[in-house]
Amino acid sequence: MSDFDTRSAEWARIGEADAAARIAFLTTELERHNRLYHELDAPEISDREYDLLYRELETLEGRFPDLKREGSLTSRVGGAPLEQLQPFVHRIPLLSLANVFGADELRDFARRCRDHLRRIGRDAEPTFFVEPKLDGLAIELVYENGKLTGAGTRGNGEVGEDVTHNMRTVRTVPHQLKGKAPPYLSVRGEVLFELEGFEKMNEARVAAGERAFENPRNSAAGTIRQLDSSKVASRPLDFFAHSLGEGLEGGTTHGEQMARLAQLGFQVNPLNKRCADIEAAIAAVAELETKRQDLNYEIDGAVIKVDELALQKALGFITRSPRWAVAYKYAPPQVESILEDVLWGVGRTGIVTPIASLQPVRVGGVTVRRASLHNAKMLKDMDLRYGDRVVVTRRGDVIPKVEAVVLDEGHAHRRHVVYPDACPVCGTTLVAEPNPDEPDKITHRCPNTLSCPVQRSESLRHFASRLGMDIDGLGEKIIGQLLDREMVARPSDLYALTVENLEELDRLGRKSAQNLVAAIEESKARPLHRALFALGIPQVGEATARDLADHFGTIDRLLDATSDDLHAVNGIAEKTAADVLGFFSASANRDEIARLRAAGVVFPPAVRRVNAGAPLAGKTIVLTGTFPTLERERAKQMILEAGGKVSGSVSKKTSFVVAGEDAGSKLDKAKELGVEVVDEATLLARLGGAS
Q1: How many domains does the chain contain in total?
Q2: Following DSSP, what letter does each residue of 506-574 receive, concatenated?
Q3: Percentage of residues in the chain having pLDDT higher than 90
Q4: How far, in Å, CA of 246 to CA of 243, rounded?
Q5: Do 301 and 351 share a domain, yes or no?
Q6: What's the rounded mean pLDDT across residues 139-152?
Q7: 3-state secondary structure of 260
Q8: At 453, which helix (H) or strand (E)?
Q9: Alpha carbon distance 504, 521 (integer Å)
Q10: Which of 201, 242, 248, 243 is nearest to 220 (CA)?
């Protein structure tokens, strides 16, 4: 049974009470991973693991529609645009695709297409078009009179980042179209690294003393978002067109459109294939997977589209994806290698983790020499020994992992891999901490938080990171020098640095030192949720930091919070509440917050100022059902901007309920309590200031 089948069976057994808690957890976790992937290009989990979490959320929301949260991720696409680049508006939304994980789900997709067509009076049997699902960054290119005039990332599907200056440097992006081009043309596709070029680039970076890029997908996304296009021009990027935005006349099928784009000069994938029916499409998907390891670019699945354009139009769209296309996600590729050694890494919070040093092996088109070994329990369960042959999986865009040991005759005679007794960096005796929920899972931690060099370095990097205090210019190398010269030991020490101090560092001139001091000074007024994230509280990511800031309002209330107070925060799990309480109870952490305050860090209260004259000032509104024109998240944002508050449940304090199609129990509750119920048109009128 596949991991998808196993999890599906688990989802079907969850009751409503457990589903509410699980939806809260999934919402918080997916928000964090969505931000890491789309905006920071630094995912912590594989694409497949994210997709399974997302599918679980979709499934639970489908079973218990009243538990669906306002602005759920299942109603959104991608992430917010980066602030440093200019916005790029998609005239037609650049949506994402729903995922499927097996042949039966592809058959269900085809059945749904046929059923929908029959419901609208179209008794048709669609044909299908199968394409490799390229593992890169979604891009839209715009041409006017045949000339490239714009390029933008997906962003949130409606607005992305303008990266025209960088896409001009990608060799497979035509600057001038061939033949007769339409007056206006937009084309969608993926930009990604050639794997051979990616490895050579990394070898050159290491030889020059620079850090190697970890994986092609993140590196492509980060490269395309560079402000300096000269850096982009030097990197081996590729672009494949996979769909039309608008502007191309003629043709009755998607395949014909792709052929026309190729004539105009775009690179179209040669593995694309038209299929007469869904069984042929299933065979094409399987055939494509067999070629995956031999490609010079990464794919993580296949895209299956209804080929006929007229049927695509008839099928239309649902909230965040077209009805006429799905993405089939492949399982992560697996290979075997030999465990040569085990390295021990120390993280920001002192947790010591094992890292496998392997005989070099190709996994998913990339040469792998290091892989995660999970934790002590996994080492024990696998009975891992030095010299063992191991199964390695490269899970999408994250670090490869050792999944299993291949038992052979020599296994029993090899030396076991065991955790060290002392921190591999500072020599402090490690503390073994069992997980309260799973006592057999032991975490090995270095308790020397303030003096362990790696912990200090990682804590400072986290504090200065973009989601934290966002101290521009305070990177790894400067932090390393500051620690080596004992100029700082903890975050609060940063605020005592002067231009003269910083000028002592290697390769940091006066102008750069002045800019860094200014950036440190500017960080003192970062919003409360950013400061909370920067503190590095265990289990507290960006979304949880916002929840804490919104709930408590001030750092003082959070410092005084009890366990009951923390459990009352919407979306905070029990373990997170315990970790937050433990963090703020520790005298060392309270002392550091006091030092930060003394240095001028403001920890500004989380207050949403509302104009008393705003149309919905003081109103509490509940949204339910599907609206004719407004996406749920857009309606919520408009209400917030008009001074109102959006609630997820109906009570006597509710000002009014906005009900759309398929409204659920919230509508019944409103009628029961005598709460006013309005439609979308009335909401829009009130947003405009009408009574």
Answers
A1: 5
A2: TT--HHHHHHHHHHHHHGGG--HHHHHHHTT-TT--HHHHHHHHHHH-SHHHHHT--HHHHHTSTT--H
A3: 33
A4: 9
A5: no
A6: 94
A7: helix
A8: helix 453-464
A9: 19
A10: 201
Three-class SS state of 147: strand
Residue 9: both structure tokens together: 């069976």
User: 13: which 2 tokens?
Assistant: 């057994």
What six digits make up the tokens of 8?
């599906």
In three-state form (DSSP H/G/I as H, E/B as E, the rest C), the secondary structure along 4-23 is: HHHHHHHHHHCCHHHHHHHH
Mean pLDDT for the chain overall = 84
Domain boundary among 43, 76, 109: 76
What's the CATH code of the domain at 189?
A: 3.30.470.30
Quick one: 288 and 184 in the same domain? yes
User: Using N-to-C axis directions, what is the helix angle for 103-119 and 278-290, rounded to 10°?
Assistant: 150
pLDDT digits (tens, 9 = 90+) for 573-584: 777 888 899 889
Amino acid identity, position 281: A
Q: Which two tokens stand for residue 588?
A: 């060392």
Q: Pairing between strand 442-445 and 431-434? A: antiparallel
Residue 75 DSSP symbol: G
Tokens of 162: 């303008």
Residues 36 and 104 in one domain: no
For this structure, is 377 an active site residue? no
Q: Which two tokens stand for residue 432?
A: 């073994």
User: Running DSSP on this structure, what letter comes out for residue 653?
Assistant: T
d(CA 588, CA 596) in angstroms, rounded, equals 12
Answer yes or no: do 271 and 203 share one domain.
yes
User: What is d(CA 303, CA 135) in angstroms, rounded to the nearest whole number?
Assistant: 12
Residue 607's SS3 state is: coil
For residue 392, how many other CB atoms are within 10 A of its CB? 24
Residues 6+ apart with CB under 8 A from 368: 337, 358, 360, 361, 362, 392, 394, 400
Q: What is the pTM assigned to this prediction? A: 0.54
Q: Say if strands 159-161 and 352-363 run parallel, antiparallel, or are unpaired.
A: unpaired
Q: What are the start-end ranges of the E strands in 166-236?
A: 184-193
Query: How far from the centroid of its chain's Cα atoms is residue 89's Cα?
Result: 21
Q: Give the amino acid at 159.
A: V
Of 136, 52, 59, nearest to 102 by C-alpha is: 52
Rounded CA-CA distance 614/616 in Å is 6
Query: Which of the residues 68, 133, 305, 401 is marked catalytic?
Result: 133
**283 has pLDDT over 90:** yes
Residue indicated by tokens 């059945």? 111
Q: Are strands 656-659 and 676-678 parallel, antiparallel or unpaired?
A: parallel
Residue 282 and residue 242 in one domain: yes
Return the structure tokens found at 31.
């928000």
- pLDDT confidence band for 690 (50 / 70 / 90): very low
Q: Please name every residue paired with 422 in a beta bridge, in sequence order, or none if there are none.
A: 429
Helix, coil or strand: residue 301: strand
Q: 670 lies in which domain range?
A: 620-687
Same domain (yes/no): 395, 381: yes
Whether residues 321 and 351 fall in one domain: no
Query: Which residue has tokens 């919407």?
Result: 570
DSSP assigned state of 431? E
656 Rama sector, left if φ>0, alpha if ψ -120 to 50, beta otherwise: beta
pLDDT digits (tens, 9 = 90+) for 447-506: 887 678 888 888 899 999 888 999 988 988 899 899 889 899 889 999 999 999 898 888
Side chain identity, residue 172: T
Task: Give the separation between CA 45 and CA 372, rounded to whole angstroms.
Answer: 12
